[in-house]
Amino acid sequence: MIRVFVHENGVTRREARIDPAWLAPDSGRTVWVDLAEPSGEEGRVLTDVFHFHDLAVEAALQREMHPKVESYGDYLYLVLHGVNFQGEDHTLETHETDFFLGSNYLVTVHDGKRRSIAHVSELCEQTSHILSEGPLGLLHRIVDTMVDHYRPEADEIESRLDQIEKAVIEADNERLMADILGAKRDISMLRRIVVPQRDAVGRLARREFNIINQEMAYRFRDVYDQFARIAEDAIVFQDRVTGILDAHLASVSNRLADVSRLLAVIATLFGPLTVITGLFGMNVPLPSLGLPGTGPFWEVIVLMAVSCGLLYWWFRKSGWL
Hints:
By secondary structure, the chain is an alpha+beta fold. It folds into two domains: 2-252, Beta Polymerase, domain 2 (2-Layer Sandwich), CATH 3.30.460.20; 254-318, Methane Monooxygenase Hydroxylase, Chain G, domain 1, CATH 1.20.58. It contains ten helices and seven strands. Strand 1 and strand 2 form a beta hairpin. Helix 7 (150-170) packs antiparallel against helix 8 (176-205) and helix 9 packs antiparallel against helix 10 (295-318).
């Protein structure tokens, strides 16, 4: 699907097609072309109308690029990723958005599910001041909305870490390992996505490209700071999940040691019983204190009970139990 917004003479309107004359730097218009999950025919707009470089068009349509920013002469090609934390599945999903920024136009390519694009497009239909700031201001608004969506997702990951940490301390549940490793994977993905995006936006904030003016550089610097804070949070989360994993493994190891110690005590308690029953199970007379009938049998039972009682007392005194 293609959506075309044109701002002219203080008015923003939505058009059904693109007039190549609008793209001239001196046309006095600001054009935003949004391609949501474009078909092959819709994707040809990038080459037939805008005449973008083939490599950039191929990367935008495949949407498998890492965050980056590149200059192609009179326009910039920017790749950023939105984020969405699936709470039910406990997975972190990222989705690519490609931007082509020219002097009086902005082209966005995405999968049609971008919350930031949908939000800004609704604002464009409601008010004209969004596009009145030009394509660079529009780009900043989209990117700023995109980074705003990172904070709730990072908070969700932190809340999940709190729950896992509490479960490790209070419960003996071996299934926590899957939750810990899942959180570790999501945090690694968050860090792997945020850091390159921080660097890409940082290039815009440092005015490495002539199309970025000083005023917009200040705005992108604020976006850079937000990405930097999230990247720092990801590092903290990484340290936390490593500590939680170590604590869980230590807890499992302690429980295993307790079980091994209990088994050793039980085996030791049965040691004298085995000796006694083995000894008197041979063809030798049973010990007797002069008791008639079955009295010697009960003497052996008492001897076994006393042996177990002495060993149990010794284990308790030694701190094994």
